[in-house]
Amino acid sequence: MHGVSKLLALCSLLALALPALAEVGWWRTAQFYQIYPRSFKDSDGDGVGDLNGITQQLPYLKEIGVTATWLSPIFTSPMADFGYDVANFFEIDSTFGTMEDFEALLQRAQQLGIKIILDFVPNHSSDECEWFKRSAAGDEEYKDFYVWHTGKVVNGIREPPNNWISVFRGSQWTWNDERQAYYLHQFHHKQPDFNYRNPKVIEAMKDVLRFWLRKGVYGFRVDAVPHVYEVEADENGDFPDEPRNEWNNDPEDYGYLDHIYTTHQPETIELVYIFREIMEEIDAELGGDDRVLLTEAYGPLDVLMQYYGNETARGSQIPFNFELLSNLNNNSNAYHYSELIHNWLDKMPEGQVANWVLGNHDQSRIGSRLGADRIDAINMMLLTLPGISVTYQGEELGMTDVFISWEDTVDPQACQSNEEEFAHLSRDPVRTPFQWSDEANAGFTSGPNTWLPVATDFNLVNVKRERSIPLSHLNIYKQLRSLRDEPTLKQGDVDVTAISPNVLAIKRSLSGYSSYITVINVSDDVETVSLDSVFPLLSTKLRYVVVSDKSIRRTNDETFANSVLLLPKEAVVLSTI
Ligand SMILES: *[C@@H]1O[C@H](CO)[C@@H](O)[C@H](O)[C@H]1NC(C)=O
Ligand SMILES: *[C@@H]1O[C@H](CO)[C@@H](O)[C@H](O)[C@H]1NC(C)=O
Ligand SMILES: *[C@@H]1O[C@H](CO)[C@@H](O)[C@H](O)[C@H]1NC(C)=O
Ligand SMILES: CC(=O)N[C@H]1CO[C@H](CO)[C@@H](O)[C@@H]1O
Q1: 94: Cβ–Cβ under 8 A, 6 or more apart, which residues?
Q2: What is the pLDDT of residues 483-516, one digit of tens each?
Q3: Would you say residue 542 lies in a domain?
Q4: How far is the CA of 2 from the centre of ligand 3 (A)?
Q5: Gene3D superfamilies given for it (predicted)?
Q6: So which residues are the catalytic ones?
Q7: Could you tell me the residue range of the domain that residue 138 belongs to?
Q8: Count of domains for the chain
Q9: Which of 129, 160, 365, 368 could form a cystine bridge with 173, CB 3.0-4.6 A?
């Protein structure tokens, strides 16, 4: 029986046995939380976050209702790109602790009912990886683990084989003296790309996944999937040049070329299906809850939807939905919000679950990107939409981007540029230490220094203070999280509508239960909306369930559905009575 009909058969079975399909698979309504381990909590005073710090703070994740947390890379690495350059896929980097520390983290997480997901960086290793060293040395087993080319000779001078430009500027090809050839790297020159056209590489990666799943992790977030494959070499072993982007005039810049041969090759989707098989292999081997695959890819929606799987193969349960993250801006109106939400819901294959991502370690924070006065509104949207929500650490507190001077900048993507350009390339502003309290260094470390400066507003924006303020960002987030346990929010239908250019409404409904309506004023104008004309069969009166500190109404206040007043950028969640 193939995938879809199997799923359909399963659905009809469950329809008899269980209240709703949404009960199946813990991840279908999960609250994911991304931890950037360098910046979450430092347990040993060296100014860099670590695994024991995460273990100490797992109760906080429990407090805010996290079901699963994914950790940015913790594997052994020379840290040329802060862990996205893995030197040993089977070890924990000493910056973060030891394997015993990781096992203790897993054990504590299990006690608390929180699942741990690891970041898997398949596109490349570090140049300090044993596999790369053996490949450079021409070792038979490893010689084709990476992409090598002797280059071309022009006027007696050796040059890289083609024009490909690295994401971090400059050629994608770096000369290796030992091998007497260039190796390919789509990112940093210390991150040589794997040759996925070699089946041995795929087998090696499957073993990496099995190793950590057997330790007790519940899945992986697979990094930057579009870059995993390059176009296949021609019969001479050569790769074609990529065409120019006429709008870009900087020949060192990644945007100078249109990356038709180095991103979104059709084989990348197939690789995700292969990785999913490993999740299922371990589900069968160890039993228990489903293992999941979260995939990071930026690209056209019809391509992204293929990551879910096709009629014969299952793919990623959670292909990250970056529609809102990538396309909303300070000036987006409610039609724009609605369109972006519908883009995913309407294109998603039958039987799959939506997910909503508004921040990560590579993107400006919500409060800085969309305005600090929209933080609660965005969290209300994120947590009342159907399916899976993904929160980047600190967004629940309303942390904003921190100004980092050129002198303090450490992100390689920024350091490789210059003092004029670095600010728009740097990801340091969103990676600063997590703000636990108003103590020194925001309670992140007991030591005197931190690897990146702490935000200057930490005495106002921190967990300890926000716990004590009823309508703080943190407490609103926690209220929303509790609301998500309601059957309507877990399993109900969704109706997303822009009532006007200024007002977005998200209605969730489930037969036999109260309906919930999130109403967001995205504009700067005061406005009254009539919800019963937009959502027929709504009750004449509605009750406020979640309000923000902008609201003049309080929780449990009532209003007539035909005249809901919203202040500028206010958002509320209402329920039918
Ligand atoms: C699904 O994807 C697999 C792997 O790419 C492919 O072999 C298969 O033909 C696809 N099935 C359909 C129905 O497209
Ligand atoms: C968004 O717009 C408001 C009002 O125009 C402005 O105060 C704020 O700085 C802007 N935020 C961003 C991130 O541009
Ligand atoms: C949204 O806020 C603006 C003021 O910023 C206000 O004029 C408008 O009436 C509000 N919209 C609603 C529906 O209340
Ligand atoms: C595939 C991959 O590893 N993605 C990552 C690729 O490497 C760059 C640089 O390390 C990261 O920033 C990506 O996230």
Answers
A1: 76
A2: 999 999 999 999 999 999 999 999 999 999 999 9
A3: yes
A4: 51
A5: Glycosidases, Oligo-1,6-glucosidase, Domain 2
A6: 223, 296
A7: 130-184
A8: 3
A9: 160
